[in-house]
Write a structure and sequence with these properties.
binds zinc ion, 232 residues, globular, 8 helices, 40% helix
Length: 232
Amino acid sequence: MLLRSLREEVLEANLELVRRGLVLYTFGNASGISRKDRLVAIKPSGVSYEELSPEQIVVTKLDGEIVEGDLRPSSDLPTHLEIYKHFPDTGGVAHTHSEFATAWAQARRAIPCLGTTHADYFHGEIPVTTDLTPAEIRADYEMNTGLVICRLFEQLDPNAVPGVLVAGHGPFCWGATATAAAHNAVILESLARMAYYTLTLAKDAQPIATELHDKHFLRKHGPSAYYGQVKN
Ligand SMILES: [Zn+2]
């Protein structure tokens, strides 16, 4: 079996989405990529999470061709592939219809950075895409969903903003690994919930100061990071 450890990690990332309450039934999917092998491992389509095993994870090339696996890959595979092709540091992608993040996506509202929890993970607001055009929906819908994300990130750094809201749909998150992508999906849902509560309590609540935002993001990410323990 190809890529056993990647398959196991992708399985765990999918199960994490369920454990954290981000996924109902078979909504949602997580994948991981081996950049060395140029192969992607993704959840099969429509298989219940209780039955999922590493053997059932589908391995494909970056053009979507199945290399190993008897089941069909998640129908969102083409969206994952566009993210891998455009964001070269990305090692994993996670997609859910988690409730609060999806509510923001349906409202077509970016999530402002209202506090330091957000700033610890996202440098800037969590953006929302434009709507797909009717032509983009009719043909190659899942690929076009990926392209609408990647177009938005022509002006943004995907390493500093590890997730997005697809308008009228829901969140896609990514990270250095499938584990990190699932983690970011959990965090994004929490940020979406907190922002909703904040704006419910105070509808004129303002984003935190740029200095505070930068402080929190940059102490955890990038060359000057000092949060946590030194890695040997
Ligand atoms: Zn979806």
